Amino acid sequence: MTKKRDSSQDITEEMSEEEIRMSGIYDTYYSNYRCRDCGYEAKVEDIVVDSFPPSPRSKHRMPELQCFCGGDLCYVEDL
């Protein structure tokens, strides 16, 4: 009986540190958001933005999030 190898482990072992940096795996991007009600501004990490569906009101197909005040936190270029 042969032992099954974890394929995800093989991928990370095969990539050098330089290849990982060049691939952009650990790069983080931020989007500027502003609340429609109170004007609060925030930089939202791409992993948060990508986890929500786009708003039908957004020209740039970005999601609307909820502000601390309860208002809509919208992508700045959509305001």
What does this structure look like?
The protein contains three helices and four strands; from the N terminus they run ααββαββ. It has a domain at 29-79: Rubrerythrin, domain 2 (Single Sheet), CATH 2.20.28. The chain is an alpha+beta fold and 79 residues long. 24% of the residues lie in helices and 22% in strands. The protein starts with 6 loop residues before the first helix and ends with a strand. It has a four-stranded antiparallel sheet. The chain is elongated, with a radius of gyration of 19 Å.
Strand content: 15-25%
Shape: elongated
Percentage of residues in helical conformation:
10-25%
Gyration radius, in Å? 19 Å
* Element-level helix/strand string: HHEEHEE
Distance from first to last alpha carbon: 62 Å
Q: How many strands, what sense, and barrel or not for the largest sheet?
A: 4 strands, antiparallel
Task: Please give the order of strands in the largest beta sheet.
Answer: 2-1-4-3
CATH class term of the domain at 29-79: Mainly Beta
Poorly predicted regions are none
CATH architecture of the domain at 29-79: Single Sheet
Mean pLDDT: 87
Quaternary structure: single chain
**Protein structure class:** alpha+beta
Helix count, DSSP H or I runs of 4 or more residues = 3
How many beta strands in the DSSP annotation? 4
| Fold-level CATH name of the domain at 29-79 | Rubrerythrin, domain 2
